Amino acid sequence: MARPLIAIEGVGRRFVTSSGAVEAVRDVSLSVTEGEFCTIIGPSGCGKSTLLGLLGGLVVPDAGRVLIAGTAVRGPDPRSVATVFQDPGLFPWRTVVENIEFGLELQGVDRQTRRRTATDLLGPLGLRDFAAKYPRELSGGMRQRVAIGRALAIDTPIVLMDEPFGALDEQTRMLMGEWLLEIWRRTTKTVIFVTHSLNEALALSTRVVVMTARPGRIKSVLELLQPYPRAMESPEMVSLRAKLWSEIREESFRAMGDGA
Amino acid sequence: MRVALARAAIVAVVLLAWEIAARVGSPLLYVPPSAAVPALRDLLLLRSYPDLPENLLITTREIVVAYGLAVAAGLAVGFALGLYRTLGRVYGPMLAALYAVPAVVWYPSLMLFFGLDAASKIAFGFLLGFFPITLATLAGIRQVNPQLVTVARAFGARPATVFVKVLVPGMLFTLVGGLRTGLALSVVGVIVGEILGSKAGMGALINHAYGLLRTADYVALVVVTLVVVVATDAAASLLERRARRWTE
Fold first, then answer.
1. What are the two backbone dihedrals, phi and then psi, of residue B157, each rounded to the nearest 5 degrees?
2. Are residues B9 and B81 in the same domain?
3. Contact yes or no for B149/A74 (Cβ under 8 A)
4. CB-CB: which of A76, A85, A102 is closest to B147?
5. Is A85's CB within 8 Å of B150's CB?
6. I need a surface site. Which of A73, A256, B65, B80 has the fewest CB within 10 A?
7. What's the predicted TM-score (pTM) here?
8. Nearest residue on chain A to B170, judged by CA atoms?
9. pLDDT tens-digit map of B131-173
10. What is the extent of the structural domain holding B5?
11. How many structural domains are present in chain A?
12. Do A91 and B246 touch (CB under 8 A)?
């Protein structure tokens, strides 16, 4: 096995809210190897987004540490990690191509180079004719592709995706999944993907990490060696789905009981 | 074209009604257009008030200084209260309460503090312009989608970069609206200040004409003042449209 690119060691984090302290994640340890597509799944409020925040350096752990390529994360590092959020967070005053360039602009890449990089991405993103459009002129799926383009443009070894397709309808979601798989397989990027969707997790991942209800801990890990593209109707995938669901069901039930 | 015609028609009707009413009533008090137009010509040819240019300049200078100060202080206070939450929570409500007080009640104090010269007019114009600029800055900051700030931070933006690349463009539209309102109110402040008590400026001339019952000259002076105000507002609206185009 290759060396772990990401090592999460005994990480814990609580937040103080108006209704008291909330323990988002407790004693989470996980290591991810280069090139993996690792999906984190679990009930609402199980700290999945907190975990991504910790990896992206936007959230500081109270306990434990997060290492990327052997170095402790001390804050956002756009040279190693790029993030795609559930709310795409596109800048409404920037065109598609200017949004994609954003990260490069912050890194001081010159205008011509960053424009070329962004323009080259438009084809794979399926946005070739939309370079000069503004976010409000795009559909939800297209906006999310722009956000993915913005993350891919800075060409980091790690891409974090926080329910990127969560707000899309199911058909668009499936197509976007296939598209993402295509992109990922063409690169050597490591993807950490958060989702609610069992099908998405099973279709895309090399590994699925199931988290418990709050406080989020790792309940189980499922390795998936099936080749892509995966036929979700095959008996093997159906039984994997049943297994994954039984793991998650219990936790979702508990989360509901908490009044989540 | 039709719209322009309709507008011209209503103006003509009003002027005609005014003319008739003024002649039937008292031409001295109601100043019919037939008397106002020659008065305006005399004013512009510097026959009735030869010192019109100096006074116009004084008023303009007061407006520029008052507005400049209002912009500087309004942006500084607005950003301080908007970016430092504790400050905003403590002082924001006080500011809004002060804004609700009819500002003209402060004017006598301003005259006592700053005298009858330009300083008190500048202070009053500043006071009126300051509030809308501060409050628009605060509102603009609140309007910026926090997700955009998170995204910028995730991509490595430091606070100064977040300010320039996210905050300012995100709030620009609201901010420019506040700057425009602030300009209009600074102009009002300076002119009202001059009318309430001054030795120079358009307000002083207006007072002079009015005091001597030179009503036709008074109307002519008001028209000139109006043109100045409308011109500044038109310039401001041009800038606002520029900003909007840039934001979108």
1. -75, 135
2. no
3. no
4. A85
5. yes
6. A256
7. 0.81
8. A93
9. 999 999 999 999 899 999 999 999 999 999 999 999 999 998 8
10. 1-30
11. 2
12. no
